[in-house]
Amino acid sequence: xxxxxxxxxxxLWYGENHALKGISLTVPEREVFALIGPSGCGKSTFLRSLxxxxxxxxxxxxxxxxxxDGQDIYLPGIDVTRLRKRVGMVFxxxxxFPMSIYDxxxxxxxxxxxxxxxxxxxxxxxxxxxxxLWGEVSDRLKKPAxxxxxxxxxxxxxxxxxxxxxxVLLMDEPxxxxxxxxxxxxxxxxxxxxSRYTVVIVTHNLGQAVKxxxxxxxxxDGTLVEWGPAPELFGMPKDRRTxxxxxxxxxxDG
Amino acid sequence: xTAMMAILFYILLRGASKLRLSLLIGQPSPLKGEYGxxxxxxxxxxxxxxxxxxxxxxxxxxxxxLNEYVGRSGRPSRLVRLINLMxxxxxxxxxxxxxxxxxxxxxxxLRLGYSILTGSLTLSLMALPxxxxxxxxxxxxxxxxxREGALGCGASQWQMIWSVVLPCAKRGxxxxxxxxxxxxxxxxxxxxxxxxxxxxxxxxxxxHPLASGAxxxxxMYLGVSSGKYIDEAFxxxxxxxAVLLGIYLLxxxxxxxxx
Lengths: 254, 259
Ligand SMILES: Nc1ncnc2c1ncn2[C@@H]1O[C@H](COP(=O)(O)OP(=O)(O)OP(=O)(O)O)[C@@H](O)[C@H]1O
Ligand SMILES: [Mg+2]
Prior knowledge:
The complex is a heterodimer. By secondary structure, chain A is an alpha/beta fold. Chain A has a 6-stranded mixed β-sheet, sandwiched between helices. In chain A, strands 2-1-4-5 form a 4-stranded antiparallel β-sheet, covered by helices on one side. In chain A, strand 1 and strand 2 (about 15-25) form a beta hairpin. Helices cover about 35% and strands about 25% of the residues of chain A. Chain A is built from 10 helices and 10 strands. Chain B is an all-alpha fold. Chain B has a domain at about 35-145 and about 170-230: Orthogonal Bundle (MetI-like fold), CATH 1.10.3720. Chain B is built from 12 helices and no strands. Chain B has helices spanning about 1-15, 20-25, 40-70, 80-90, 95-110, 115-140, 145-150, 155-170, 170-185, 190-195, 215-225, 230-255. The two termini of chain B are about 25 Å apart. The mean pLDDT of chain B is about 90. The chains are: A alpha/beta, B mainly alpha. At the A-B interface, helix 2, strand 6, helix 3 and helix 6 of A face helix 7 and helix 8 of B. The complex binds adenosine-5'-triphosphate (ATP) and magnesium ion. The site of magnesium ion (MG) has 4 residues of chain A, from helix 1.
């Protein structure tokens, strides 16, 4: 159990739309892996394939494998709820449940059978601390989560995901709905998570990718153009298309 | 709208003079020459409770099934469209037809006779489309991101529905139940055929559902058709109209707050 993800020639179709065309890459454990690329290239689709969130879409077909610590997550007998417990997710739009701050964070543990008050209290505090939110909310845990600011709500969602004690954390443009200050806080937070979790993050913000990621992958039109250590991908991309994207010449996308 | 105002005004005009609390919660007593709607009121309460007991679990269950299981993601399947069509059609059937069906099916085939239970089961069929439709609407208004958030924490589909979707939709669901209550309280034709016209207080509170009993509305109808209690009936109608107005207002407020 360490949180190492591998995609092997992974394809995905939404009906007729071939959204992922043979993706092969490895996300090393306890590193931050950034997915970049123009809009509609399949970043979210790939991210959501990593915890089988794409199962929710009707008419999805796929081919190839995705392995978590060597085990194929799409094998027939796999328990999807257990998979999602191991591979947590933070969404683009902060979406706390309309309950108290405490209940939001305790949601996952409760779902997974934790009942003891002291244990829940401990998990809630640890998760809020890990999400760098404890100091701001420790005196109002019983207040509605919807009363928090957007940036705080997103950190709460991160805490909610961490409370399940996942090995991998998937983040789909977690800061795109936030102001620069909140964005900065979440970027710091991501860096601090790196020592304990594998993080896969989709971002449109290249500066953010450079700042937080150890590894990066560039997607274009459903294909993986190149991937590798972030300094290399951003510093000296091997592929012309990656270079064009990074330097802002997106016109060659089509 | 003007027609409705006219009707309300007429009811107000004719009913207001006789409207007293003792009329609503008193018993008819020919000896003293007094009239009262207590039997109808009690029967209506029985009917409301029994109808809801049957219709709410089935109706909300059906809405959850349609909205969360078959109808999720993408275009609705053929089954969902068929069921929705049936729900629409059911909502459009005149209540007298429900009454005849209930009398034949629950009353005769199931041998429940003219009884409050027969009436309640019949009304639950009428209430179902109302509950299903309004509940489906309130479930559909729950943002998809909350469902994904719950599933992303490793919740099963059912855990997600129970712990996130239903609590988030609770006002809308309550509003759908109130709409049904309004429909039940205002119904008369279907009850005349099924629950009968006995104007009595329960002899036995437990077995009362198996007895015949006139609802408040049916008692009003009887009062008018006998020619003796026309003004009393208008007074009761006035009280009922006020209660229904309150129920529908509350339903409207609750239904809107979710969105
Ligand atoms: N639920 C869905 N149903 C059908 N098609 C979808 C669905 N989600 C995405 N697609 C299609 O799959 C392709 C990839 O979309 P995806 O959302 O993965 O792109 P993305 O790289 O995340 O884009 P963005 O940067 O805009 O978020 C697009 O053509 C999109 O239209
Ligand atoms: Mg996306």
